Amino acid sequence: MPGTEQKHERAPQGQAARRFLFVLLLGSMLLVGATAWPIVEALLVAAVLAASLAPLQWRLAAKLRGRRKLAAGLLVFAVLVLLIGPLIGLSAFAVKEAGAGVQFILETVRGEGMTGLIERLPGPLDRYAAEGVARLGDLGQLLESQLGKQGPKAASAVGTALAATGALLFQGTMMLIALFFLLASGDVLLGWMDSVSPLRRGQTHELLREFRTVASAVLVSTLITSGVQAIAALVGYLVTGVPHPIFFAVVTFFVAMIPAIGAAAVCVFAALILLVTGHPYAALLLAVWGIVVVGLVDNVAKPFLIKGDVELDGAVVFFALVGGIAAFGMVGLLIGPLAVALFLALLRMYKRDFQAGR
User: In angstroms, rounded to a whole number, what is the distance separating the alpha carbons of residues 109 and 142?
Assistant: First the structure.
């Protein structure tokens, strides 16, 4: 019959159109991913902060007679002053000083040799370094010649450090801008995502609630763990007699939020100060305390704190944190638990909404 033939003709055409639309959708997703990739870390951190600060923003906006943008601006300014500013400042200072230190070492060795570098070391390090170079013999001369050849590259090392500082400032700026828009228009964005999502009504909001829960748990656990590490480090600074212990404790708090460095690095740096000032036993005690106690508190406290707010086993949280950091660096601290929690949420939704009807 004519009607049956037309239906058979439209069916293949409909399937071809669906496949073509799927290919276009996949291609557009890749383009969007490539566009967002340079600032993906800034966007993710902004989303986590927005999800955690949303309840506070609602209460603040209510006190300001519904001025959501003003409330969002005040919260962004508070984040800049209390959290992001010190982190960027410490990171920029560390990068700059590391570059300057490398340049100084290379130029000194190139101009005066290893002897000139050793003479600049404080006692008793100068004596130990001289004995070590003497025992190396020809190997020490080879090391000196190789370091001397690297002198022209010192300027490029400083340039690389400055570029890294600029990139960090750029990411911080993009994060603050994204945070403002998410706080000011977050509900509009959520409604739009629910309307364009192919999921059933309510499933998108369920996933976003899961994201908010995990994001808040990660952020709160990071702050609390950093505080615990700073207190533990302060005990070590006071016992071993580190100069300006409160200053070092504050630095430990902020550095503890950077997984790639960690709070133990500050303790080791303070131990080096004790060593060069003639307190080797106190330096050894502080270094051991920093690595064993301060450094390991993070691995125990953070999974325990996250487990209290998220329906995940403590071991799963621990390996999600470690694996996320290993795969994605600093931002993996957020991606690891979020990926596992969202995956389990999708499994629960599939089992409840699709397998239940079978």
Answer: 12
- The Cα-based distances of 197 to 6, 205, 249 in angstroms read 32, 10, 47
Give the pLDDT confidence of 128-145 residue by residue, as tens digits.
555 555 555 544 454 555
Instruction: Select the more confidently predicted residue: 177 or 257.
Output: 177
Residue 356, φ and ψ in degrees, nearest 5: -65, -30
* Angle, CA of 288, 291 and 294, to the nearest 5°: 110
Q: Give the angle 154-255-88 at the CA atoms, nearest 5°.
A: 65
Q: What is the length of the chain?
A: 358
Nearest-10 crossing angle of helices 263-276, 280-288: 170
Looking at per-residue pLDDT, the higher value among 200 and 90 belongs to: 200
Confidence of residue 2 (pLDDT cuts 50, 70, 90): low
SS (H, E, C) 312-332: CCHHHHHHHHHHHHHHHHHHH
For helices 295-309 and 263-276, what crossing angle results, to 10°? 160
232-252 exposure pattern, b = at least 16 Cβ within 10 A, e = fewer: bbbebbeebebeebeebbbbb
Return the ∠ at Cα 70 (arms to 68 and 71), rounded to 5°: 65
Phi-psi category of residue 321: left, alpha or beta, with phi > 0 → left and psi -120 to 50 → alpha: alpha
Q: How far apart are CA 324 and CA 318, in angstroms?
A: 10
Q: Is the pLDDT reported for residue 279 higher than 70? A: yes
Asked whether 293 and 239 are in contact (CB, 8 A), the reply is no
The torsion of the CA quartet 189, 60, 207, 213, rounded to 10 degrees, works out to: 150
DSSP character string of 153-203: GHHHHHHHHHHHHHHHHHHHHHHHHHHHHHHHHHHHHHHHHHHH-SSPTTH
* Structure tokens given for 160: 């690389």
Query: Interhelix angle for 314-328 vs 332-350, to 10°?
Result: 130
Give the other-Cβ count within 10 Å of 75's Cβ: 22
